[in-house]
Amino acid sequence: MTTTNAHPMSAQQQTALKALIEEGLPLDSRPYATLAQAIGSDENSVILTISRWLSEGLIKRWGIVVKHHSVGYTANAMIVWDVPDAQVDDIGERIKASGLVSLCYRRPRRAPYWNYNLFCMIHGKNREEVTAQIDKLTFELQLQHLSRNVLFSYRQYKQCGGHFLKRDTSVASRPEARLHHG
Q1: Residues in a beta bridge with 120
Q2: What is the pTM of this model?
Q3: For 110, which DSSP code?
Q4: In a designed cystine with 45, which of 6, 51, 91, 138 is the match (CB 3.0 to 4.6 A)?
């Protein structure tokens, strides 16, 4: 990609781009070109603008929200670990680097009821597959000595990306409040 064809975007184009990327990237071989066409800009300008927003911190993370159920991954487990505080960063990095989990993060303990401080997620097509991945992760990283709990999900919740634009949260803005009765 060359950036020589990039043109500065107007404020209106930038606002439109923010609104579009809140909805997610288009499923297209050239999603930035599709976004550019929608706002009357060019692909390079879109890429440069998003890159600038990342470097300025307007966008903190650029990632993907996968709807696991729609691609056949219906067995999902959150593994929660009780890791000594001095080791949690190292073990978390090793779990993340294993390639066996889709995400891994640290959370504060809620003693005395919840002593777990490291969470990771494994997705699979069935429980047996997920259980085998948990066993492999535990064995390969030598985590057998750590207390853990495996929480399988039974329901898929709505997943969405970040929001940049202010939303109207009043009752009148909700779809159910706009229904007209006859």
Answers
A1: 79, 104
A2: 0.56
A3: B
A4: 6
Residue 37, burial from CB neighbour count under 10 angstroms (0-12, 13-18, 19+): middle
Please report the beta strands in 29-117, taking only residues with DSSP state E, as ranges in sequence order. Answer: 75-82, 103-106
Q: What is the pLDDT of residue 75?
A: 82
Look up tokens 């159910």; give the residue.
176
Distances (CA, A) of 48 to 12, 19, 101, 109, 111: 16, 17, 31, 41, 46
For residue 67, CA distances in Å to 98, 133, 161, 173, 175 come to: 22, 20, 12, 26, 23
Cα-to-chain-centroid distance, residue 116: 22
Long-range contacts of the stretch 101-107 (C-beta < 8 A, 24+): 101/137, 102/66
Q: Which residues are registered as beta bridge partners of 147?
A: 82
Lookup: tokens for 70? 């729609």
Residue 176 sits at the vertex; the CA angle it makes with 174 and 181, to the nearest 5 degrees, is 135
Residue 155 burial (C-beta neighbours within 10 Å; 0-12, 13-18, 19+): exposed
pLDDT tens for each residue of 37-86:
999 999 999 999 999 999 998 888 776 665 555 555 668 899 999 999 99
Per residue in 81-134, pLDDT (tens digit) is 999 999 999 999 999 999 999 889 999 999 899 999 999 999 888 999 999 999
Q: Are 30 and 43 in contact (CB under 8 A)?
A: yes
What's the rounded Cα separation, in Å, for the pair 44 and 148?
47
